[in-house]
Amino acid sequence: MSIVLGVGIAVTTITTIYLGKKGWQALHNAVGITPGVLIYQDSNAPLSLSTISWQQLNLDNNHLKCLSDHQLRQLQRIDEKVFDYQTYQKELQAQKMTSVVNEQQFVLNKMLQVRLPEMLASHHLANISTSSKNINSEKKAEASELLQQVLNNIEQRLDVLLDEMEAQHLQDLRVMKNYIDSHDS
User: Fold this and answer.
1) Which pLDDT tens digit goes with each residue over 22-57?
2) Cα gap 79→54, rounded to integer Å
3) Residue among 66, 74, 58 at smallest CA distance from 125
4) Distance between CA atoms of 63 and 70, rounded to whole angstroms?
5) Under 8 Å between Cβ of 89 and 161
6) pTM, rounded to two decimals
């Protein structure tokens, strides 16, 4: 009798473990997760141009080869901020609300679409000419510094624009709340 009871407990335990494991895997497959696979991405590892994908910026990879890792990361941040801004603009259009393009937005768009690619091309040419002729590295450093200043300027303008958008939405909410509160009395 004890042998039958022992075999019954063993079969029940094995069946429970087997079904639990299959259920766990089915759950992961249903939500699109591969169990047991973890991909570590080092955020401090140098960026590779082959792995960078641009969401909004249209940049020539040849011009990006001579950029520092810091500048590539800054370009990625700029690209993400431009993506956020473009998403905001598309949401306004979906709600049939048109936003008036002010001078700041126009200038920023011109910088992103025309001037930034031109600056990257000039920076690339400056690095090629200084490295091929072995001229002093001062010109190469100056070109890098000028490009860094342009990237900082663009990122700062994007930050100001995104902050203004957030402030405008907050102000709209305040106005709506005050309107509703004024009609409650």
Assistant:
1) 888 877 777 777 766 666 666 666 666 666 777 878
2) 7
3) 66
4) 15
5) no
6) 0.67
